[in-house]
Amino acid sequence: MPTSPDTPLYNSRIFDSYLKLLRKRYPNVDTQALLAHAGMKQHEVADPGHWFSQRQVNLFHDKLVQITGEPGIAREAGRYSASPDALGPLRSFFLGMVGPEYIFYLINRIAPRFTRSSRCSARKTGPREVELTVAFHEGVQENPRQCENRMGFFEAAFLLFDHDFPEIEHTECIFKGGEVCRYLIRWRPSASYRLLLAQRISTLLLIGGVLADLLYNHSVLGLPLLLGLLCYLGFTLLSRHIERKALLSSLTSMRSSSERLLSQVQENFDRALAINEIGQIISTRTELSDILSSVNQVLHKRLGYGRGTIYLLDPQRNILVLRGCFGLSPEDEEKLRRIEFPLAVGHPRGVVVTCFHTQQPVLVSDIEEIRGQAVPENFALASALGVRSFICAPIVCEGEALGVLAVDDATREEGLLQSDLNLIQGIAPVIGISVRNAMRLANERRLSEQLRKASEHLERRVAERTAELSQAYAELEFLYDSVSHDLRTPLRVIYGYGELLLEGYGQALDAPAREYLASIISGGERMEQTLDRMLDFSEVKSAQLSLETVDLSLMARRILAELRITAPDREVALEIQDGVLVTGDQRLLSGVMENLLGNAWKYSALKGCTRIAFGQKDGICYVSDNGEGFEMADAGKLFIPFQKLHDGSRFQGHGLGLSMVLRMLERMGGKVWGEGRPGEGATFYFTLPPAGTP
């Protein structure tokens, strides 16, 4: 992917060497102004994890040459990285190697730690000669001073091992029309190597002299042998002295590097342990307050941040409120709790609210930088608390912002760094997961409690309604019994005296009077039949069941044979399926079949040919006819007592038949429903336990 002038390409450790050189040899240079001109900040240069762009590097070099008046300062800074005062990044990488030549064999691994702008490769071209090639990535346009700085780094690699400056020949340069930058590096043997070589030569000469002395006259070679021995001892002592001095210098540097490395290892260990402990908190805590308190303790204990706060969204008030903190006195905590961060449009947005809305972390290296952006009251409180630099990281889960985590440490003179921001940015989503889980669990508990209360209320209402229904059923049964028994005698008196009046005095009455008496007698008889049906309807609920296997096919044939006797001249087509066996009460099943087949017979009487079918399919029994049928919109009224869907003048009935069918089937563990179309007939389906069911 092509890079742009604003792509981060160069590690801050390169420019840390520049600043150390300026403080050592150019103390009058205003480094703050230099960094500000290049768009760099002191804490960014001090942070090993920060990278700068080509635009910033160009501005930095141009300003640096201008204020120092030294065109070659870039190469000087490269060399200075090897000095003990700088203790630069090269020393920590290179001191563990045997010699400078091995550095170039690993250049392809070392270079990416300092630059992302190019690829470096090396090949050996002689006993003490190496060719280095730097190929730039697409879109990268360095400036010549970076090329000088790179050669300074090459020379620093030899200074680390007490070598003389190597001879560097820049055979191909991208700034002079080349495709790459190519460097041919030659070096002479080091002083220690030359002493070692002289020691070996003197040793050979001494051995040769001793052998010659043994073969010839001892007095002749005595003086040369003494001189050879003195040379050997001198070279040996000088070589050992130089070796001890180099070893002591190396050990001193390695000790400093080791201490820094151990400190970094301890810091990384604490960070890993903090993340692990936060993970354990998530898996073992369920209450939001416990989670936030434990997380704060881990951040304070493991990461060493002096103070920290956790602000979470309050859904009811649309603001951020303080939900947890560490490192604050009770008085300071109370002050912070009184601060609210409104999120609605129109309210001033400080750093915390901006971090929440943008879901982007913020590192403020100097609180004075945000004076104009911050809410004045909040800025005054932060200043009073001694906040100098701080980090805000959004607490996000599943893309939704839940709050903001803020930390600061007044004890750090250099302030918080990019590495701190990276750490907090990694911890904040973990906190977000725990907060979301705690909120969901709290919602589930609240919902469970609401459901429990609703269930208890519903159970009470059901019990009350059941009691009311039981009482209503009892009263209804009592009413049925009362009506059926108490009205029977007066009805019989009415139509009985009507019959006597018609028989004894019928001749004395005119035709209309006789017709009136006949209507009274007929109505009384129909009323008595209705009372009988009501009594049957009431008795269905309390009837004692005697479950057995019943052959509904035989029962259907018997009922239809009896119906045909009532209308012998009607044309009838019957389809009765054989072997329909169910488990039920014989008496109740007889009532079901009589009502269903009787309705089919009654409502198909006006057809030219009555067609009635009975059978069973997939365990469902059915009775169908080609009679009057009904609208499906009225199907809900079929089984309501005294509800009629057809004109009573055409089809007589009391309106209790299907309601009795429903009650009888429910008593036996079955159900019934109907389907029909006006003028095309109807089909009634019902289910019962199959034959053999206990």
UniProtKB/TrEMBL annotation:
Its EC number is 2.7.13.3. GO terms for biological process: osmosensory signaling via phosphorelay pathway. This is histidine kinase. It catalyses: ATP + protein L-histidine = ADP + protein N-phospho-L-histidine. Residues 482-692 form the Histidine kinase domain. GO terms for molecular function: ATP binding; phosphorelay response regulator activity; phosphorelay sensor kinase activity; protein kinase activator activity. It comes from the Bacteria. Keywords: ATP-binding, Coiled coil, Kinase, Nucleotide-binding, Phosphoprotein, Transferase. InterPro entries: BphY/WalK/GraS-like, GAF, GAF-like_dom_sf, HATPase_C_sf, HATPase_dom, His_kinase_dom, HisK_dim/P_dom, HisK_dim/P_sf. It comes from Geomonas paludis.
